[in-house]
Amino acid sequence: MRYLTTFTAFLTIALRQASLVASHGGVIGYDIASKYYNGFSAYNTPVGQSTIQREWDTFNPITNPTDSFLSCNNNGASLGSGQLSATVDAGSQVVAYWNQWPHTIGPVMVYMASCSGACASAMPSDLSWFKIDEAGLMSGTLTTGQWAMGELVANNNSWTTTIPANLAPGEYMIRHELLAIHTSNQPQFYPECAHLVVTGSGSAQPSGNSLVRFPGAYKVSDPGVTIDIYSHPDVTDYTIPGPAVWRG
Ligand SMILES: *[C@@H]1O[C@H](CO)[C@@H](O)[C@H](O)[C@H]1NC(C)=O
Ligand SMILES: [Cu+2]
């Protein structure tokens, strides 16, 4: 009887865990230059994993915009000898795929950062990030409108981004970030990073206000971060957080 009770309690916890797992997610793969790359396998040890993505350990969101892991999720570590990178021409597309993505309310943002030739040893929180793509409220109102995240879900849980055509070649990280805002005044950040080697003959490099840190780029008081979409049924604009998109 005691064993049965223990087992039942275990099962309850296991099921609860499973439903939590099912309710969030992250980037599980990329299509880059006609090649598919698996992402990191969350909930598994990094030992033996080999991927272009940085380590991230759970599907859970980061809920504090100044969290120390906001750059490349928890824990954002390099995979050492398992750390790969994808080669991509400036001006070409990167498609990111999410798993079982459930949220349809909030913006999609994509950033890059130069690693000064050394992504494998770079600390994501030390990098200077620039935004290459963003989309927020596409149509309608905050409460009932169509959001970029809804388009992502409708598009096979994927988002396609173009690397700025004139970006100088070199080693970069790319950072896909979903900001789910379906819970009033409680943002959920889902960032994942991957290593790229950008090729081409471009020469543009972002500077000044285009460059931000994570954490650092967002504040709790940003209007697009702490927001109650349900109390603004007639508002048709949303302020995406972070810097303006840099287009080279
Ligand atoms: C949908 O996404 C999966 C990755 O999650 C990919 O393997 C598949 O090719 C995609 N399907 C289409 C039609 O693009
Ligand atoms: Cu979730």
From TrEMBL:
Protein name per Swiss-Prot or TrEMBL: AA9 family lytic polysaccharide monooxygenase
Recorded domain comment: Has a modular structure: an endo-beta-1,4-glucanase catalytic module at the N-terminus, a linker rich in serines and threonines, and a C-terminal carbohydrate-binding module (CBM).
Coiled coil: none
Signal peptide: 1-23
GO molecular function: cellulase activity; cellulose binding
Keywords, comma-separated and alphabetical: Carbohydrate metabolism, Cellulose degradation, Disulfide bond, Polysaccharide degradation, Secreted, Signal
EC number from the UniProt entry: 1.14.99.56
Domain Auxiliary Activity family 9 catalytic: 24-238
Function: Lytic polysaccharide monooxygenase (LMPO) that depolymerizes crystalline and amorphous polysaccharides via the oxidation of scissile alpha- or beta-(1-4)-glycosidic bonds, yielding C1 and/or C4 oxidation products. Catalysis by LPMOs requires the reduction of the active-site copper from Cu(II) to Cu(I) by a reducing agent and H(2)O(2) or O(2) as a cosubstrate.
GO biological process, one term: cellulose catabolic process
Matching InterPro entries: AA9, AA9_LPMO
Catalytic function, reaction form: [(1->4)-beta-D-glucosyl]n+m + reduced acceptor + O2 = 4-dehydro-beta-D-glucosyl-[(1->4)-beta-D-glucosyl]n-1 + [(1->4)-beta-D-glucosyl]m + acceptor + H2O
Recorded GO CC terms: extracellular region
Pfam families assigned to the protein according to its UniProt record, in alphabetical order: AA9
Localization annotation: Secreted
